[in-house]
Every structure is written in C-alpha cells, then in structure tokens.
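Deliverable D5.2: sample structural annotation.
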Amino acid sequence: MRYEFIPAAADSAISHVGTYQRRLPVSLERMYENALDWAHLPHVHSSSFSDIQLISSGGLGWRAHLFSPGGKESVIELCLDRSRRRWITRNIEGPNAGAEIWTHVFVVAKQEMDLVIDFFVPGVQAQSRDQVGMAYARQYERLYDEDVEMMTERQAQLDLRIDSVGKTDELSLNVPEQSVLPHLVELSGRQFWLDYFKGRWVVYPAVCPHQLGPIGGQINAAGEVTCAWHAYRFDVLSGECTHGGQCRFPELPIVEANGAALKVFWAKQQA
C-alpha cells in the first residue's frame, strides 16, 4: 500500500470516517492546477466518471454535474483556499449528498508534497466508519495514481519545453511501413506523429498545446487527432482546434517525399 489510512477517533462526534495520507512527486503548482482542472475528470478517470457538465468555474474552484459510469448523477463543488494550502470538495446533490472531502497539501521539496485528505460522510454509524473510510481511501488511491501520471508528464513536458526551435534541424528517414503508422519522430527536441492522410504525408505534435497532454496518434475520418487528458480535437492539416478550446497547434514542420525517403524540416530552413 502506497498510502496510510488513519481511522476516525472512536468517540468522534462529527461525521469523520478517516484520513488518507500519501507523498506525491509533484509540485504545489501542479497540485493546484490539477484541483481546478474539472475537465480532465471523465477522460483521465474514465473508470470513475463518465461525463461532467460545468455549472460555474473560476480561480477559486468550480461546481458541476458529475456522472458515474453507472449513470448516477451528483452535483459536486470544489473550493480552493491557497492561503491554507487546501481545497474542500462537497457533494451537494446525489449519492452521498452532504459528504465533504478536505484535502491539505504540505511542501516537502520543490517536486514533493505530502497529501492529507479527511473524509466526512454524514449518517454513518460508528461501527461502519472504518469500512466507509477505507472505501473512500481506495477510491482516492486510484484517482491519485491516475493524476500523478498526468501531473508528472505535464511537468516533464514543461521542463523540456523549447522556446525557440532550431530552424536548421532536419530529419531524414525511410518511408515507414503502413503497419507502423502513425510513426513517432523527433525534431528539434520535440516529438511529432508522422502519418499518411488523404494522399499526403502529414506531421503533427505528440503533445497537446492546451496543457501538454499526450496527443493520440490515430487520425479520425474527419482528419482530427485527440488529446487524452481533455479530449481536445485538432485538425492535422490546419492545426486548428475543432473541439475543446481556444488553442491551436504551433508551427509545424514540413514533410517532403523523395521516392522511398522522407525529409522533415522547418519551413524557414528553405530559401
């Protein structure tokens, strides 16, 4: 077990059913970013949530209709308090209405946080508190396993981000077999997908411009690729975001075919 579960006090007069504690290899900034990122829930946590419909959001939190894979609906509110390094998640309507999850984070190092989460669930009998608390702890174990993967990948992409690419860089390779398409390539320290679409070679980022999540390589029938974290879709030919938000692919390399060989390069390299 990668976390510690502390049962509620036997004589507790409130609805506290237990505490979850865990150390995470992420920064405080990534934790706040993750807490406010309501849109990732049904995509990164698809085994727990099937859909989310936003009611309101801002720099201090959000409120939304959240749906489970079984179709159950809840209204959830998250309120962030940066001054106390905590956020409170409240179940306003639906199953477990009235439950509150209090999350506190404590800085251990630049990329290391201690996470302490207290579960408050009304109406639980004293003899059932440990069982209910452990159920919440197991759920949060799964959620944070998935979130840590997303947060660490975003941090890695931020650490590797290049403000100005080397415009003299180019990549030469043999034409890939159809069976290995889309094919991952690297140019100027950045990863791109190389594929063949509508009679032409195309290249597009393997990282989403929204929050640097992974772009799935497979092009759909409309010529779009999708981000795994928030389901943003992008047209591989124009680079425009066709679903999700106001962003687009940055400048893309050019692919030039010459018989059985391909060359990938930046446009400004050519006279």
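Annotation notes: The chain has three helices and 17 strands. The chain has a mean pLDDT of 88.
The annotation will be released with the project's public dataset once the embargo ends.
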